[in-house]
Amino acid sequence: MFGIRNLRPEEVAGRDVIEVGAYEVLGSLRPIVESWGPRAYLGVDIVSGNGVDEICDAEDLLERYGPERFDVVISTEMIEHTRNWKKVVSNLKHLCRPGGILLVTTRSRGFHYHAYPYDYWRYEPEDIREIFADFSVERIETDPRDPGVFVKGVRPAHFVEKNLSGYPLYSVVTGKRVIEIEEKDFRSYHFRKIRYKRWKKETKKKVKATMRSWVSSG
After folding, report:
1. Residues 44 and 85 placed together within one structural domain of the fold
2. Strand stretches in the chain, DSSP E
3. Which residues of the chain have pLDDT under 70?
4. Based on the structure, what is the number of domains in the chain?
C-alpha cells in the first residue's frame, strides 16, 4: 500500500492528521497511522460511517478547520469524486502546515465509472506533476493493479499556490479533457452510455447473488 510504504512513523508521531474522504469502503490507512501515535486523527467525509468522525464537504474544509491546521493530510480515492476538484485540491494544500505532508491517491483514465455517490475525473501522472508543482513532490507512483496514480508531497515553507483555473482534466462525464463540467454534459450520450453500462453490470451481479441465495436455501 502506497501510504504505508511512503509515510514514516516519525512523520506522524505527535502530529495532527486529517483524512479527507475517510469513509471506509475497501480498507483504510487509519489503523496503521494511528498505531504510530499521532496527537490527533480526524476522519471527515460527506456521509457518516466507519472511519468518519465529522461530516464535512471537501469544498468546505478551510471554512471548517482553517488554514495550516494539520501536519499530515491524507486523501485516498476521493478527488475523482468531487466536481470542483480545483477547490478541493486547493483546500487540501492549504490545510497543510509548512513542512506538512500531503498524501493523495486517485484513479486514472481506463478505470471504470464508479459513483460513490458521484464520479467525475481521471488523473494521469503528468496531471499530478502539474497539479502539485507548488509542493515538494517526494514520490509519484502508478497503481500496478488498476489505472491510478499516487503522490506524496511536502508543503514548502514559502508556499505559493499554482494557478490551475485554466487546467483541463479528463472527465468520465464528457469523455475528454475539459476545464469544468457543465450541466448539459450530464445529459450527453456519452454519460448516459457509461451509466447504462454500470447499471447493467450491477444488475447482473444482483441477479447472480439472488440465484446463489436460492440455490443455497433450496
Report:
1. yes
2. 16-20, 40-45, 54-55, 70-76, 96-107, 121-122, 136-142, 148-154, 169-171, 176-178
3. 209-210, 213, 215-218
4. 2
pLDDT tens sequence across 84-95:
999 999 999 999
pLDDT score, position 217: 67
Determine the Cα angle at 27 with ends 14 and 150, to 5°: 75
User: Which residue range forms the structural domain that includes residue 105?
Assistant: 2-182
pLDDT one-digit tens code per residue, 133-179: 999 999 999 999 999 999 999 999 999 999 999 999 999 999 999 99
Q: Cβ neighbours of residue 155 under 8 Å, at least 6 residues apart?
A: 93, 96, 97, 98, 99, 100, 101, 102, 135, 136
d(CA 112, CA 138): 28
Task: Assess whether 114 and 208 both reside in one domain.
Answer: no
User: Measuring CA to CA, which residue among 65, 61, 62 is closest to residue 78?
Assistant: 61
Q: Cα separation of 128 and 102, whole Å?
A: 12
Q: Which amino acid is at 1?
A: M
- Are 141 and 211 found together in one domain? no
Same domain assignment for residues 178 and 193? no
